Every structure is written in C-alpha cells, then in structure tokens.
C-alpha cells in the first residue's frame, strides 16, 4: 500500500512537533523549513491535523504549534486512516467497473492486506515513532 504525499507530509510534521520541548512551540514556517516541505503544503497539513485534534495552533505573540496530548497518544493506524480515508486499494466499481467483480478473489485479498497494514500501525503512536534514534535527528533539523 502506498500513502499519499499529503499523509506522508502530515506524519512528518506530527513527528517533528512530537519532539518539541514541553511548553515550547514552533511556527508553521519553522516546521516547513526544518522538514524541507513547502510552506503552503505544511499549512494545509497542519490545518487537517488541527481539525483532527492532533495539533493545537495558537496565533499571535506567544502562539505557535503544539502536539496535543491526544496527538501524542493516538494510534498511528487511526491517524493514517483519517488522513487517507478508508477506500479500498482497488476500485472495482466506478466508470469502468471490473467484469470480475462478482467473482473476484483479488479484491478480498487486497482488503485483507489493507486491514493487516492498518492493524500493524494500530499498535504504534507518534510518541513511539520519535524514540531514539529518530527523535535526536528530528531535533537537529533547523
């Protein structure tokens, strides 16, 4: 299974925010620069993460971005599902429906593989992803 670039970017943003010292904040521009991501893409990802309750964003003096407690402890599988949507790996219906859809074993096998993929992510949190050696590397990015 391949994740969208948006999901990849949002996960990297979340990981960067997970290693910020408690009480400290980063700006969208700082995160974008550190992660080598265009500012507009970073802002869109942060907007979605904020909507999901993963990131808290405050404007103005003393504002900035912070990973919420929920964001730190939420299942990685849950977050990827929210960012990706739960569409099937293959599209058997649609404008050009597959003629095998009534008796196809591939669709079921791919659905099982997708469930296994998410199940393997369900056991992890963003906090798990930023333990050593990843955390120190994320902190070194400026």
Name the descriptors:
142 residues; mainly alpha; two-stranded antiparallel ribbon; 2 strands; 54% helix; elongated
Task: Classify the beta-strand content into a percent band.
Answer: 5-15%
User: What is the rounded distance between the termini?
Assistant: 31 Å
Largest sheet: 2 strands, antiparallel
Number of strands: 2
* Mean pLDDT across every amino acid position: 90
Give the H and E element order.
HHHEEHHHHH
Shape: elongated
Major sheet strand order: 1-2
Low-pLDDT sequence parts: none
> Count the helices. How many?
8
Structural class: mainly alpha
Helix content: 40-55%
Radius of gyration, Cα only, in angstroms?
Answer: 18 Å
Protein model, in words:
By secondary structure, the chain is mainly alpha-helical. It contains eight helices and two strands. The chain has a two-stranded antiparallel ribbon. Strand 1 and strand 2 form a beta hairpin. The longest helix is centred in the C-terminal third of the chain and has 17 residues. The radius of gyration is 18 Å and the shape is elongated. It starts with a helix and ends with a helix. The model has no long low-confidence stretch (mean pLDDT 90).
